[in-house]
Amino acid sequence: MKEIEAADRYARAIFELAEEKRTTEALVCELDLVSSAATKNRQFLELLLSPFVKLEEKQALIQAVLGQGSGVLSSRFLTLLALKKRLALLPVIVEQLQIRLNRKNGIKEVTVVSGRELNSEAQQKLQETLEQKIRMKILMHLKTDARLIGGVQVRIENRLIDGSIRASLNQLGSRLKTVKV
């Protein structure tokens, strides 16, 4: 839990700095690039987290991933994380930054789980309906779960809207148990 709190503090601080410098979107992209590289390449991650690799070598590795056109703020921030031995928090920091950026841009992240893959027409209709209901733009993440017989489950932040047939059957079963014959 302390790691999540620390990651949130780092995310809040760097987000505010990036907002002042008007480089928020670029910063989030650059940090996500390094985080993704560390997630995909185990050797890279081990080098970043190793106490035996010097700070200058870690900086060079990070700069190689970022490239020449990267922002000073992201480089300095990643150097700070390396110095404080907090690079392991980077994926959580990036996640928190993305949430803050979406909130700033008026976008809600929504996860939709369905029993089978939704076609593009159904996805579009669902997205339009959800945007009308919550009166915000949404970023929809689609997942499938074969355990759902039909319908969809929609998760908006910590709220679940369960429109699955499985949920309907469970509700019907509960009602039938309470009916006196």
Say how many strands there are: 4
The spatial strand order of the largest sheet comes to 2-1-3-4
Secondary-structure-based class equals alpha+beta
Beta-strand content bin:
15-25%
**Helix count?**
8
CATH architecture designation of the largest domain: Orthogonal Bundle
Regarding CATH, which class of the largest domain? Answer: Mainly Alpha
Main β sheet profile: 4 strands, mixed
* Mean of all residue-level pLDDT scores: 89
Rg over alpha carbons = 22 Å
> What fold name stands as the CATH topology of the largest domain?
Peroxidase, domain 1
CATH homology superfamily of the largest domain: N-terminal domain of the delta subunit of the F1F0-ATP synthase
Helix coverage percent: 55-70%
- Molecular shape: elongated
In words, what does this structure look like?
This protein is of the alpha+beta class. 62% of the residues lie in helices and 15% in strands. The protein contains 8 helices and 4 strands. A 4-stranded mixed sheet has the order 2-1-3-4, sandwiched between helices. The chain is elongated. The termini are far apart.
